[in-house]
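Predict fold of Permease; 124 aa.
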Amino acid sequence: MDYTSNAFKVIGVFFFLIGVFLIVVGTMGGEWPSMIWTMVSLGVLSFSMSYLYPQFKQKDERMKWIRHKAVFYSFFIMMGVMGIFHLMISLQVVVLSAVDLLSVLLALNIVTVFLTMVILARRY
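Predicted 3D structure, encoded as tokens:
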């Protein structure tokens, strides 16, 4: 029996619990650490992989196509997101440090790639 899918779920819960802990500590301390977004995105990655693992294990043409299209779509989504962030920072709607901005962009990149894979796997 293959327990890898369940292992991804356990790891996802672990990352979400770390994210909730960081949110609580950040709220109590008055400043949120930039690592919160990374932990939550890794939780999303783990839950996505728990759904996708049985299909990725097959290594067929369909999964290669899904991976290729997910990265392709995510590239354009991230270009749009970076353009929006650039506009918001230029107009001083949002004030972020470089570390915070990179953390948010990393988390959004992880989330968009893996959620796009899940959407494409469900659709095709």
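The chain has four helices and no strands.
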